[in-house]
Structures are given as C-alpha cells and as structure tokens.
Amino acid sequence: MPTETSWSLSTTHATSSGSASGIRHSRTQALLSASIPGAPRPFVLVNGFEAWVDLDGRRAHLSAQRYAPDIVNPDERSRLLAFATAPWPRWRFAVEGGAHVAQELQLVRGRALVALRWSLEEDLPGFTLGFRPFISGRDPESLHHDNEALREASEKRGWKVTWRPYDGVPEINAYSNAAFEADPHWYHNFQFDDGSTEDLFSPGVFRSPLRYGSPVEVILSAGWEEVVSGMILPEQPVLWAEAGKAKVAAPKKGPRRAAPAKKAGKAKAAQKKATKAVKSRAEHRGGGPRRGKKKKKR
Question: Which residues partner with 179 through β-bridges?
C-alpha cells in the first residue's frame, strides 16, 4: 500500500482536502469547505465520507475512519493499490471478485461544489456502490459535536437532495445518479492527529449498481439554491465535472459495447449502393466507365 499522502484542491469558491486513506488528520481537512460572500471565514459543510462496494454479501471498503482512542474502522487500507494527486485526486482499489474500482474527485472553477466518481474497470456483474457523507456546518478551526439544534431532515426533489443543518449556514445540495435513502445517524469521536475529537452527522446513504462503462457520480454543492448550470438536467442527473478547460476522459467501451458486425455490413452495403447510383447517373448523361474500342473488320 502506498504511504499516506495528503491532497488539497482550492478555487475561489471552495476547497477540498484529505488523505489517501480517507482519515482526516486535522480539523481543517474536509471534503467540501465553501466560501460565502460576506462571511469572514469559510464553512466546513461536508467533512468526509464512507464509500464501499458490495458483491454477493461481501463488502470492500474504499475509505478508512479513525476514532478515539486511535481505532481505525473500517481498516481495509491494503485495498488501495495506487493514489495520484495530478491532474486531480484519483484512487485505485482492489475489491471482491478480482475487480478494481477507480475513485476520482474534482472541484469546479466558479462553483462551490465537489464532484466524485466511481468506475468499475472490469466488465463484471453484481457490484453495488454505497456512499455515506458526514456533514457539520462549522468553522474550519472549530470542532463539531452531537447536538439537538442540527436539522436532521433530508429534502428530496427530483435528482436533488438538500440538507439545511443550521440557521446561517449554507444549505448542502447533493445531485447523483444513485438513489438516496434517508438513514440519519450521529457518528462520534472522530480523532485528529493532535488528539482532539469531533462528532459528525450523516443524513443517509446513496446506493447504485456499479457497472462497467456506467460510473456512479455524486456532486455535493454548497450555497443557498446553488445552481449547477449545464451539469444537472432532469433527464441526465449528473455530468462529470470539468478540470479547468479539460474534460475528464470518457471511460473506454468494453467488448459488449463494440459495434456489431451487422452494422458494419450495412454501412458497406449502403456505400456500395451509393456508388452504383452515382455510376448510373453518369451513364445516363453519356458518361460512365470507359470501354475499349472495338477493332474494325478488314
């Protein structure tokens, strides 16, 4: 397993930072922190997440959490085969059934949002991805603890799920091609390197079949009625984010998506027919293929 590596992304509207394992080593590390006009400091909205892949009752965790006193659970960090920070954070995991899963993360310029994507590298059936976010709404230097003031309700509207944890804190919007299931829970005693701890709230779980060529995507957006223009459509909930001007490369098509031989045959037949029609028109005008001259009989 690669050594623990930290990563950090930043735009004028948001920051996202963390570690390769998923363990947050300081209170300033968060999946989504948003800068709101007029506010002296940004808000930490989505602190982190758990992600996993299920296959036939077996579960492979794609992230680790550390709880006091120094307990890592789940601890399946050996599944992490590779991690890179450029051009954006990207993980590669070994999961059940001999398969591999890629996890990617991006910020988008001009938007207070973070986008995540999971892709199955092999054309194998039966996989399901799960994603559980941990939220707060605190100052980056503060700590969050279990309390009755936090609003636990999840508001669903089409593809959009909204959480409004506190008054005066930006709402958190989630867009995904995965189904959301409300399952509110407090998680206690996340531990940082300095020994301090905090509690985080999780509103529920996103679940979706994970198939080759069909990534599972989640976009977490900060702000009051933040609109992800050009990315979220009713008939197509999530389009993968842009990293600057370069779009993420589309996944390579597997053998099942290759063009059938019949289509290639039809294309050749159509081309042959079109060529024949051109020759026919040329002959009608007195043209057409040249023929050798007949010799005169002497």
Answer: 207
Task: Copy the structure tokens of residue 222.
Answer: 């900060």
Cβ-Cβ contacts under 8 Å for 218 (sequence gap 6 or more)? 115, 116, 117, 131, 174, 175, 176, 178, 206, 238
Per-residue pLDDT at 157: 87
The answer to whether residue 270 is domain-embedded is: no
The pair of three-digit structure tokens given for residue 84, joined into one six-digit string: 């890179």
Output the six-digit token pair for 57.
């009752």
DSSP sequence for 5-55: -EEEEE-SSEEEEEESSS---STT--SEEE--TT-SS-EEEEEEEEEEEEE
pLDDT of residue 252: 37
Q: So what's the pLDDT on residue 109?
A: 80
d(CA 119, CA 201) in angstroms, rounded, equals: 27
Enter the pTM of the model: 0.77
List, in sequence order, every beta strand (DSSP E) within the chain: 6-10, 14-19, 32-34, 43-55, 58-61, 66-67, 71-72, 80-84, 90-94, 100-107, 113-120, 127-138, 155-157, 160-163, 172-176, 179-191, 197-209, 216-222, 242-243, 246-247
pLDDT at 261 over 50: no
Distance CA 96, CA 82 (A): 17
Domain hosting residue 183, numbered range? 6-251
CB 11 within 8 A of CB 109: yes
Examine residue 277 and state whether it is found in any structural domain, yes or no: no
Give a yes or no: residue 32 inside a domain.
yes
